[in-house]
Amino acid sequence: MPETPITLREHRIKHLTLAAPVMASQLGQISVGVADTIMVGQLGTTDLAAVGLCVSLQSLFLLFGIGMSYGITPLVASADGENAPGKAWFTLRHGLLVCIGTGLLLAAGGFGLVPFMPHMDQPQDVVVLAQPYYQVLAVSWIPMMVFQAYRQFTEGLSFTRQAMNIALAGNLLNIGLNYVLIFGKLGMPEYGIMGAGYATLISRVFMAIAMAAYAHTHKRFAPHRGSEGSKGWSREGFRSMLKIGLPAGIQYTFEVSAFTATAIMMGWLGENALAAHQIVINLSAITYLMATGLASATAIRVGNQLGRKDYATLRLVGWVGNRMAVFFMAIWAVVFIVFRDMLPSLYSDDAAVLAMAAQLLIVSAIFQLPDGVQVVSLGALRGMRDVRVPTYITLTAYWLLAIPTGYVFGFVFDLGPTVVWAGLVVGLTVAAAWLAWRFHRLSRRLISQT
C-alpha cells in the first residue's frame, strides 16, 4: 500500500535521518583503520607502508564479506514493508549463518595469502612487518561479520542508531588499546605494528558481542523474535540471502580490487609511493563510507517501498539518495583540493611522501562525485533486488577499464604514480553513469507496469 505522500524536503530529512547514524557507524569502522594508520605512522615510513599494504589487501576480503551481509537489508526492509516481523527475524537467522561461514572462509583466505606476500614485488622490510600483522587482521574478520549480520538486520528495520553507538564505542576502545599496545604504555610490552592488530581484533570482538546482545534482548525486537514464521530453517531462506548477498559481495570486490591493484602498483614505485597511497586512500575511504551510509539508507527505503508496491515513491527515494550523494561528495572534493597540503601531514612528516600525497589528493577529489553516485545507485538497485547486471557493470568498469588504464599510463607510458590513480577516475565515472542509467530504466519500467 502506498504511503501518505510527503514533500521532497521531508523525503530528504527522512533519508538523512536514516543515513546519518549509518554514516557515523561506517566512519566508526573506518576510523579503526585511520587510527591504526596515524598511530603506526609515528613508528616510521616502513611501518606505515606495511599497514598500507595490509589495509589494501584486507579491503579485498572484508568488503566482499560486508557486501554479502548486504543481502540481509533489502529482505528485512521488504518484510517490514509487508508488516511481517517473523519473516524479518527468519532472514536474520539465515543471514547470520551465512555471515559466520563467510567470515571463516575469508579468514582462511587471508592466511592463505600471507605466503604470497614476498612475491608481490613489495619492499622486503615492508613484507616482513606486514605478514604477522595481516594474520591478526584476518582473524578479526570473523567477529566483524557477526557484527555486520546483526547490524544489517536492525538497519533494515530502520533502527540505525544503536549500530552507530556500538561502532563508535569500538573505535574508542581501539584507539585506547592502540596507545597502550603500540607504544607499550601502562606496563604493557611495546608491540609496535602488532599492537595495532591486537587492538583491532579486540575491538571487533566487543562490537560483535554488543550488537548480538542488542538484537536478542531489546524489547523492540520481541515481536520479531516470537512472531509466526520466525523459526525453522529452509533452503529458500539461504537461497534468498545468497541471491542478493553474493552478487553484492562480488560487486564490492570488483571495486576494491581496483584500489588493491593500485596499491600493489604503487608499491612497485617504492616505499614513498605506497605510503602516500595509503594516506590518500585512508582519507578517501572516509568519504566513501559516508557515501555507503547514504547507499544503505537508499537500499532500506527502496526495499521498503518495494514491499509496499509504491513504485513512484521507490523511484523518488532512489534519486533523493543520488542527489544527496552528489552534494556531500562535492563538499569533500573541495576539502581535498583546498587542504591537500595539510591533510597528509596528519599521517607523516616525510617531505617526499607528503608531496606525493598532495598530488594524489587532487585525483581523489576528481573521482569523489562519480564514486558517490555509483555506490548509491548500487544501493538503490540492491533495494530493488537487482544484483546480477550491476555485477557485470562493476566487472567492466573496474577490471576491464580502471586497472588496465592505470597500468598502461603509469608504467607503459611511464607517467608516474599520479597517473596510476587516473585509472580509478575512468572506472568510477563509467560505473556511476551506467548504474544510474539502469536505476532510471528499471524504476520507470516498474511504474509503467502498474
What's this model, at a glance?
The chain has 450 residues and is mainly alpha-helical.
Topology:
Elements (H helix, E strand, L loop, with lengths): L7 H34 L3 H25 L2 H10 L3 H29 L10 H33 L4 H23 L9 H25 L4 H5 L8 H34 L2 H38 L2 H28 L12 H16 L1 H16 L4 H25 L4 H4 L1 H27 L2
Helix pairs in contact: 1-2, 1-6, 1-7, 1-10, 1-11, 2-4, 2-5, 2-9, 2-10, 3-4, 3-5, 3-10, 4-5, 4-9, 5-7, 6-7, 9-10, 9-14, 10-11, 10-12, 10-13, 11-12, 11-13, 11-16, 13-16, 14-16
Descriptive notes:
This protein is mainly α and 450 residues long. The chain has one domain (8-448). Helix content is 83%, strand content 0%. The chain has 16 helices and no strands. It has helices at residues 8-41, 45-69, 72-81, 85-113, 124-156, 161-183, 193-217, 222-226, 235-268, 271-308, 311-338, 351-366, 368-383, 388-412, 417-420, 422-448. The protein is globular and about 60 Å long. The two termini are 13 Å apart. The model has no long low-confidence stretch (mean pLDDT 89).
Number of domains: 1
- Assembly state of the chains shown: single chain
Fraction of residues in helix: over 70%
Detail the poorly predicted runs: none
Overall form: globular
Ends apart, CA distance between termini: 13 Å
Q: Strand tally, please?
A: 0
Query: pLDDT average, as an integer?
Result: 89
Instruction: Give the H and E element order.
Output: HHHHHHHHHHHHHHHH
